[in-house]
Amino acid sequence: MIPETLQPLLTAVQAHYSMPIEVVIDGPASGVLTHEQSHQELLANGHLQLTVSDTTDVAYTLSHELLHMQLTTAGYPPLQFHLATGEPQVDQQFFAVATALYDAALHGQIRAWQVAHGLFTPAVEKALAAGFTQKLKGDDATQLSVFRTLTALDAYVMFDGRAGDWLADVPDEATAAADLYGVLAAKPIDSPFAFRRTVIKLWRAFDQTLTRHGYQETGNAEFATLPPVLSERQLRLALNQTFEVRHSALRDRTTRQRAYVAQGKGDGQNAFVLPLPASFSPEAFQKLYQTPLSDILARYELDYTVR
Question: How far apart are the C-alpha atoms of 121 and 56, rounded to whole Å?
Answer without folding.
Answer: 13
